[in-house]
Amino acid sequence: MSEANKELVRRHFEQIWNNKDLAAADELMAQDYLEHAVAPFGQAEPGKVDGPSALRQTAQWLLAQFPDLHMTIEAIVAEGDTVAVRVLTEGTNLGPLNGMVPPTGKRFAARQSHWFRVEGGRLAEHWATREDLVAMLQLGVVQPPGRPPS
User: Fold this and answer.
1) pTM, whole model, 2 decimals?
2) How, if at all, do strands 47-50 and 82-92 pair?
């Protein structure tokens, strides 16, 4: 079971994010999906959502900002119905950030940790920790603070 669950998570990153095959969401995601990860610039966890639809919307939103987005799985482990994965995400900002900030044209590379719960052969629940600050610094959207006074 653990190997099948890891393969499901691998397909999620490869098909949706790297191949931009948003139709794959219908076979990878549970209809009743519990999302715990707050989106970049978000204020709260989405909670219970329509899995395939929510993933397509998120992918369209992110790919509009980073059309060359690529996610590389660096490590993946599974136990029971849970899969944890460390991912290196890279991309070039060619679309307005969050629909508001003009594209910077700069590249970023940042790591993320994703945890998924699998139910009935589909992704049913998700948690994430992302290096959003690292990405925003690389994109020039956020400036590091100045030197402390001597």
Assistant:
1) 0.91
2) unpaired
**pLDDT at residue 145 tops 90:** no
Q: What is the CA radius of gyration of the chain?
A: 16
Please answer whether residues 141 and 108 qualify as being in contact, where contact means their C-beta atoms are separated by less than 8 angstroms: no
Q: In what order do the strands lie in the sheet containing 82-92? A: 47-50, 29-35, 122-130, 107-119, 82-92, 70-79
DSSP helix/strand/coil, 83:
strand
**Coil, strand or helix: which one is 91?**
strand
Report residue 123 as tokens. 């992704």
Q: Is the pLDDT of residue 38 over 90?
A: no
pLDDT over threshold 80, residue 42? no
- Beta strands of the chain (E only): which ranges? 29-35, 47-50, 70-79, 82-92, 107-119, 122-130
- 46 and 40 Cβ atoms separated by less than 8 Å: no
Predicted local confidence at residue 98, as pLDDT: 86
